Amino acid sequence: MGKDQELDKKMYVLDTNVLLHEPLAYLSFQEHDVVIPMTVLEELDHIKDRKRDVSRDARIAIRSLDGVLKDASPEEMLDGVRLPSVQSSNESGPLSRGKLIIVNDHLFPDSISGLPGNENDHIIINCAVRLQKQHAHTKVVLVTKDINMRLKAKGAGLQFVEDYRTDQLIDDIKLLSLGYKKFTGDFWQSVGACTSEQQGRYTLHHVPKSLLPDVFCNEYLVDDSEHFAARITHYDETNITFKDLGVERLMHQSAWGVQPKNVYQGMAMDALLDPNIELVILTGPAGCGKTLLALASALEMIIEKGVYDKVIVTRNTPEIAESIGFLPGTEEEKMAPWLAAITDTLEVLHKNDESPISSRNYIMEKANIQFKSVNFMRGRSIQNAVVILDESQNLTASQLKTIITRCGEGTKLICTGNLAQIDSNYLTPLTSGLTYIVERFKHFEGSATINLNGVVRSRLASFAEENL
User: Fold this and answer.
1) Residues 6 or more apart in contact with residue 210 via CB below 8 angstroms
2) How many alpha carbons lie under 13 Å from residue 405 in its C-beta half-sphere?
3) 451 sits in which H/E element
4) What is the pLDDT of residues 332-380, one digit of tens each?
5) Domain PIN: where (predicted)?
6) Strand 447-451 vs strand 279-283: parallel, antiparallel, or unpaired?
7) I need a surface site. Which of 104, 127, 380, 421 has the fewest CB within 10 A?
């Protein structure tokens, strides 16, 4: 192999957190070689038996690696086993894959990287630096989701360090869909040819696709007139159909006594109260009303309209307490500290009652509100329910997929989250599962995304959000 060809070849060294984030990540590097240090296998082994959500991902990673390596001899594993080929999208034949290599990094006790101690991160970095020295004409890349490990690796002399971004759909969080388009001036002044028809209480308008070239289903339209508001209901290569809602109609909606305080909340409530929209994603800063609107709409649809049978509220518990087993009581009692935002919201909804606590407990029973841990959602099939997934910015795409696929017929899923408040060590606004589903589902006709622009909790909260 010539020097130029060697430079085109890459060798990716995977950290443990990459395989926990995406158990089949080693298949994502096309024709390049993938290195799994022995330390990574040991960490997966330690994690697989823990009673944590990531334990399942560790077991999947171990089983899939075994599927590739089970027939290989020790020598072949160290030399590299060819990864299975995949069919190319242009039907030109199968794409060639690189090798999967297991490196026994414990054979190198001396620290070529200069990092002290026997910490696993340092051992993996040391392995990558050694490979960089051994394969001088190959681009050796350490792939890790640990930001601090990336910094230490570069400081130790590793030239190429990357985050795992195969499941990253956008390059800048500013490009994330807001769920609506706001037009400068009067929207109707920019509309040329337009046909209309009446559908029940609403008017449907059909305009050329050239007017709005980049739209998706259930995207909202507003302008500066403070009168026009609409929602895209259908589009094809030539035309767009949107439902004329009007700002006044949006602002006069009500759910369990709650009315929108701005047009963004009005758009959110319109989506939340529509049974034909099975997935509603609410993003925005703390205090913008995500949880309040979600819960009020759920109560309205269950108790007043009888559309659904129950509310299931769940969220990801912080890693420091991911196992809820040490807390006393039932699952719901154990989850109570992490779901205090829901009980606080219920009290706000009934603050004018003579006994708000009694009213809250009565409504929880009448609406059949259940608190569940994300860890126990696997394997379930949830029917005729409203599922509220709070703080979903702390979940990976894989975890969110697990929850979404639990939703059966007649179930509505509401995901709320603030991308500025990510608690996970390995997630960023770009790699959060919340960002992933906003982009992945925006063309799905059964979903809607609304970014609730503006803090309405209090004057103090609004100032803090804008200035701290």
Assistant:
1) none
2) 8
3) strand 447-451
4) 555 555 556 677 777 777 776 666 566 777 788 888 888 877 766 666 7
5) 10-151
6) parallel
7) 421
Any idea which fold 258-467 has?
A: Rossmann fold (3.40.50)
Ramachandran bin of 287, using left for φ above 0, alpha for ψ from -120 to 50, beta for the remaining angles: left
DSSP per-residue string spanning 62-117: HHHHHHHHTT--HHHHHH-EEPPPEE-TTSSSEEP--EEEEE-GGG--S-TT---S
Tokens read off for 442: 């925006």
- Are 139 and 160 in contact by the 8 Å Cβ rule? The answer is yes
Beta strands in 119-261 (DSSP E): 139-143, 160-162, 180-183, 195-199, 202-208, 220-223, 229-235, 239-244
Cα–Cα dist 142/139, whole Å: 10
pTM: 0.76
Look up the CATH superfamily of 3-162.
5'-nuclease (3.40.50.1010)
Which residues make up the CATH 3.40.50.300 domain(s) of the chain? Answer: 258-467
Q: How far apart are CA 297 and CA 451, in angstroms?
A: 17
Which neighbouring-strand residues pair with 95?
86
Residue 366 φ then ψ, to 5°: -70, -40
Q: Where in the chain is the domain with CATH 3.40.50.1010?
A: 3-162
DSSP conformation letters of 327-381: S-S-HHHHHGGGGHHHHHHHHHHTTTSSSHHHHHHHHHHHTTEEEEEGGG-TT--
Q: Specify the amino acid at residue 413.
A: L
The H helix count followed by the E strand count for the chain is: 16, 20
Cα distance between residue 435 and residue 165, in whole Å = 13
Tens digits of residue pLDDT in 259-280: 999 999 999 999 999 999 999 9
pLDDT single digits (tens) 433-452: 899 999 999 989 999 999 99
Return all residues near 214 (Cβ < 8 A) that are at least 6 apart: none
Cα distance between residue 234 and residue 240, in whole Å: 6
Please tell me the distance from the alpha carbon of residue 52 to that of residue 348, in angstroms, as a whole number: 33
Pairing state between β 310-315 and 369-373: parallel
